[in-house]
Task: structure prediction
Amino acid sequence: MVQGLLREIKVPGTGKTMTRRLAWGAPFSVYDDEDGHKAKRLRVEGYKVSGPDDTGMRLAWPPSPWQSVKVGDRLWVRETTSAEHRWAGTKPSLITDTDVWYWADGNPDDGDWTKPIVSIHMPRRFSRITMIVTATKIERLTAISEADALAEGVERRGDRDYWAGLNRGTDAVACFSALWLSLHGMGSWDKNPEVVAISARVIKANVDAPEARAA
Result:
């Protein structure tokens, strides 16, 4: 996915400009709601609540933070990274702005790749890719169009051969479905959840840099 973003920065219109995230969090039970007051309150707060027949035990799904993303927001991209060898085993929070930092596609021989810092632990101050949100929509996962699947970073290699990571398919949607399965597990595509589809303009700059703010 990072490679798709970098490809878009290098040659606009050829890389990743969309990302999909689950629209709802894990459901929880709402007991004893015969009068529907609990369901009404939760819906006002943005939750999705099961139907009126489930008065004994309703299910409620909280909105994911991705539903609050709006046009103009800046999203920073986390990547697998490494610090210098001398910082092996050091917590990312203790590595300062003056220390040398390496991304997975740059100077890998100089970084400490014996214990790479996985993307979820990448500090915000070391991000180098920013997505400027241009549009959002909520739709079912399998409603994705061929154009949107291509915008997700699926790369065309030949007339009927698509490539996304290690996933092949006869069209972009089939390839994206394989990618989704690799990220979310078996059966996740068939569940067809609601997702937040975010379109963005991609720039190579830290999310807090002046050029990102200006964009």
About this structure: The helical segments are 2-10, 37-44, 146-151, 172-184, 210-214. The chain has a mean pLDDT of 87.
